[in-house]
Design a protein that fits this description.
Blueprint (H helix, E strand, L loop, with lengths): L5 E2 L7 E7 L5 E7 L6 H13 L10 E6 L4 E5 L3 E2 H4 L14 H20 L12 E5 L5 E8 L30 H17 L13 H5 L17 H15 L8 H13 L12 H9 L19 E2 L35 E2 L19 E2 L29 E3 L17 E3 L27 H9 L3 H13 L7 H12 L4 H13 L7 H12 L4 H13 L7 H12 L3 H11 L4 H9 L2
Parallel strand pairs: 9-11, 12-13
Antiparallel strand pairs: 1-10, 2-3, 3-5, 4-5, 6-7, 7-8
Helix pairs in contact: 3-6, 3-8, 6-7, 9-10, 10-11, 11-12, 12-13, 13-14, 14-15, 15-16, 15-17
């Protein structure tokens, strides 16, 4: 059988993961390693052996097809779309299918069961990420959680399939945040052992090694690596990391209890046993199964766009100096990177040599090494305001979804509805006649000690900036409660930006109990001083009728004020216009 591939001409990257359809209609995945990837043959063969060990029971694991060492490729088979694509797929009023807590619980349980399945075979995956978790739809266009499949086993190992080279992973990469402390420590210890073995004692990473030492990586085998002693807790930690990122964004809670229980259970996934973590995967599964969920399935009429697979692997630099990579535009709120959906394909010649394999089909797709921007762990990501008991919509076109940065332009995949999205911005307040305290962003360059000293001496701008650092975890552990404390100190001095941030925290329930009345109070104080964040969030509260009487005219008016200084507000303003009748729009414009 000779099924030729059509692929996009792309610059060579360390790792590329491509989905294609074979001539026989099978959905397949091609993993390609750069020609510079150290010991590429070893890692591809290792992964092939791991996949082949599941040939008798292929639940949750992609089916091995072939490996081509000449072209540094491995092909496996799994139908569906990666979780990263689902997270960028609007469903009705939702930005993605898992915004309802019941569906998020289903996703977590499906992932945990997949992890338990491979763990019971003695395998530790070591690289669980949303880009390798694949889900299909059933005949009713619902996500089939039982179809969950893992498509990448690059660093997996078991007692029978031990890893014999240090993991080629950059633990210093921001994309490596999902690696557990034990896994990080093992990787570093293994590089130290390798460095000692090749005569460069004292070095602890690939980047520190000489060219001569790096060349030995191809041939040196080390069966007693520390990485082989890391257990299932590393995988549970990784899942906890990613589900925490998803849960930090908008969630519509099915039960009030979900708002407390779900984040607490996800947090336990990353805790050690002595710190309150789960003692086993089965115990973790039972804890999530105990949550009462909505039995209604969620139909998805539009499948995800498949023009890109974003890799969240902390891929290493392959050269002594870092590769120059074009920056990926991203911002604090959950907005997937937009992709070019045009099909740019070329005919590839059939592979030859010892590793010819069955088909690389249509649509070779680039893997972006910086894909972690989609779900990067940052505490400033705001969860959406969960609805009060009752309907989740305020009017026919209004939903609730907080974000945390005012200048973020909404994704093109957003649903054309009016998302009442609170903003906690860092933009300066240059409008309004009221006296304005200095904008805290002017202090962003101060050291933590300098900033703390100024804040303790009562400078409201410094207090606001210190609160921001606590919220984002910049130079200090993230702590929303301390952020609220410092925002409040600034707000009590009539500092507009501090008031706007405090209103945002109250609006989203971060670091303090959610209180829409107080949120409206502080947002209004900021808005009346011309702060665009306060104006925007106050407008959203009016649209949703939370903390203030529902009033689309007032909501439009405040968002329009914010729109003069903020791109996100300007975009929302256009959406709000479509919800107003001509008479209401004329009234809103006349009210300016």
């Amino acid at each position: 059988m000779t099924e030729l591939a059509e692929s996009i001409a792309l610059p060579e990257r360390p790792v590329q993961l491509d989905k294609f359809t074979s001539q026989r209609g099978k959905e397949r995945w091609c993993k390609r390693l750069s020609s510079d990837y150290p010991a590429a043959d070893y890692w591809l063969c290792h992964e092939a052996r791991v996949l082949q060990s599941f040939q008798r029971d292929q639940r949750y694991v992609s089916s091995f097809v072939a490996v081509d060492l000449d072209n540094k490729m491995l092909v496996s088979e799994a139908g569906g779309h990666p979780l990263t694509h689902w997270l960028a797929t609007p469903v009705g009023e939702l930005e993605h299918p898992f915004q309802r807590s019941s569906d998020l619980v289903r996703l977590i349980l499906a992932s945990l069961r997949a992890l338990a399945h491979i763990s019971h075979t003695g395998l530790v995956h070591g690289g669980l990420r949303p880009d390798i978790i694949v889900l299909r739809q059933n005949d009713r266009l619902e996500i089939d959680f039982d179809s969950l499949t893992l498509v990448d086993f690059a660093v997996a190992r078991s007692p029978l399939l031990r890893v014999e080279k240090p993991l080629f992973i950059d633990t210093a990469s921001p994309d490596a945040a999902y690696l557990s402390p034990a896994l990080r420590e093992a990787i570093q210890r293994d590089w130290q052992t390798f460095a000692k073995l090749v005569g460069e004692n004292g070095k602890s990473s690939w980047y520190e090694l000489s060219d001569s030492a790096r060349r030995q990586y191809e041939t040196v085998l080390m069966p007693d690596l520390a990485i082989n002693s890391v257990d299932w807790r590393a995988d549970l930690f990784a899942l906890g990391h990613w589900f925490k990122q998803i849960s930090l964004h908008r969630i519509d809670y099915y039960k009030d209890a979900h708002q407390e229980q779900l984040p607490a259970l996800i947090k336990r996934m990353q805790k050690p046993v002595l710190g309150g973590g789960f003692t086993s995967l089965d115990a973790c599964i039972k804890a999530f199964e105990a949550l009462e969920i909505d039995k209604r399935a969620l139909a998805i009429n539009e499948p995800p766009q498949t023009s890109g697979v974003f890799s969240m692997q902390p891929s290493p630099v392959l050269h002594p100096s870092p590769l120059t990579v074009a920056p990926v535009a991203h911002h604090d709120d959950f907005a997937p990177v937009q992709l070019d959906h045009a099909r740019r394909e070329r005919r590839a010649e059939a592979p030859s040599g010892r590793g010819k394999f069955v088909g690389i089909g249509l649509g070779l797709i680039m893997v972006a090494v910086l894909g972690a921007a989609l779900l990067r762990s940052r505490d400033q990501h705001a969860s959406v305001t969960p609805p009060e008991p009752g309907p989740t919509t305020v009017d026919s076109n209004t939903t609730s979804a907080p974000i945390s940065q005012a200048n973020a332009v909404p994704s093109a995949t957003s649903v054309p509805t009016v998302a009442t999205t609170p903003v906690a911005a860092t933009s300066a307040d240059n409008s309004g006649d009221a006296a304005q305290a200095p904008d805290s962003t002017a202090l962003a360059g101060l050291s933590l000690d300098e900033l703390r000293a100024a804040a303790q001496h009562g400078d409201p701008a410094a207090q606001t900036q210190l609160g921001l650092r606590y919220r984002k975890g910049q130079g200090i552990p993230a702590d929303n409660q301390k952020a609220v404390e410092w925002y409040r100190k600034a707000a009590d001095q009539n500092h507009a930006e501090g008031q706007a941030y405090l209103g945002f925290m109250l609006m989203t329930g971060r670091g303090i109990k959610r209180d829409y009345n107080a949120a409206a109070h502080y947002s209004k104080l900021a808005a009346e001083q011309g702060n665009p964040t306060g104006e925007y969030n106050l407008g959203l509260l009016y649209l949703s009728g939370r903390g203030v009487p529902a009033d689309k005219i007032a909501g439009y008016r405040w968002i329009k004020k914010a729109a003069t200084q903020d791109a996100a507000a300007a975009a929302r303003l256009e959406e709000v216009k479509h919800t107003l009748t001509p008479a209401e729009l004329a009234q809103a414009e006349a009210a300016q």
